[in-house]
Amino acid sequence: MRVFHVGPDHSAELGALPEALPAAGFVWVGCEREEFGGVYPEVQAALQRWGAGTIVDLHLSDLLNSQLPSQFDDTSWYELLVMRRLGPGNGGGTGSLGAVDTSPVGFVVFDRVLISVHPAPPALREHFAQRLAERGGGNDLRGGSRLPTSPAELMLRMVNHIVDGYLELRRALSRDLGALEQRLLAPRSRFSDWRVLLDARNRLQELEEIGEDQRSAVQEWIDALDEWPHEEGAEHRRERELLRVRSRDLLEHVERVLAHVRRLEQSAESAMQMHFSALQQRTNDIMRTLTVLTAVFLPLNLITGFFGMNFDALPLIHSGTAGIGIAVALMLVVFVALIVYFRRKRYLGSHRR
Fold first, then answer.
1. What is the pLDDT of residue 27?
2. N or C: which end of the chain has fewer CB within 10 A?
3. Candidate CATH numbers 1.25.40.10, 1.20.58.340, 1.20.1330.10, 1.20.1050.10; the one for domain 288-344
C-alpha cells in the first residue's frame, strides 16, 4: 500500500496512513487487490478517523472481485467506479488477440480521499506515483504539469490512461488480425486454423462487451457529476467544469475504443465471407473445367465407340491406313473446334479482363 498527499502545489508520499487529513489537498491510497484484502480494516478505520465515512461492505466485495465488469455506483458520501483495463497480457492465447489483460481497477472517490485498488503488478499506480513525484517540487502548474486538484480529477486521469492503453494495443490487434486475414484470403492456401479464428472473434466480442460496460459506467459517472451539489465560488465552478470536460473526453475515448473493436469485428467477418466466396468460386471453376473436359471428350468417345462396333459394313473399316488417318483427323478437328468454342464462351481459362 502506498499513500500520497497531493497538495495544491506539491505532492509527497507518506509512510503510512496519517492520523488526520492534511489542511490542504487530498490523500491518495493505492493498493494491490491481494494486499487490500488484508489492509481494508486499517483503511476503514482511517476513513472513520478522517470523518469521510466508511466503504459499504458490498462495495468492498466489488473491489476484491477480480472478475467484476466495469460499473459505477454511488452513495451520499462517495462514488465507486470500476474499470476493466485493456492492455497486453503476459501470455496465453495466440498473438495479441489472445493475450489481452482485462483485469478490473477499482476507485473509491471521497471529497478529500481517493482509494484505488489495482491488479498485480500495479503498473497504473506506479505510473502515476512517478508522475506525482516528478511534479512534486515543480512550480509550473500549467497544462499537463498541473497537479490534480481533487480525488475525482486524479481518478479521471487514471481511468483515461486505462482507456488509452487500448489505443496503444490496437496496432498489435490490427496487425495480428490482418495476418490472419491474409492467410484466409491467400489464393493457394488451405486454411485450417478455424479454432484460432474463432478464438479471435470471441476475444473481439469480449472486448466489445468490456467497452460497452466502460461506456455505461462513464456515462453514469457523468450523470452523477451533474447531480453534485453546486458550491459557490468561481474556483469551485472552474473545478466542476474541468471535471465535466475530462469526463466527456473520457467518454469520447471509450467511444473510439468501441468503434475500433467493431471495425475489427466487421473486418474479421468480411474476411470470412470473402474466404468462403473464394472457396465457392474455386469450386465453381473446378466444376466448370471438369464439365468442359467431359463435353470435349464425349464426342471423341462417340466416334471411337462408333468405329469400334462389331459390324463389317462400317465406313473406313477396309480403307487401311487411310481410314485410321481420317478418323484421327476427324477427332482432332472435333477436339480443336470444341476447345475454341468453349474458350470463346469463356468456359476455359481466366475470366479476368
1. 94
2. C
3. 1.20.58.340
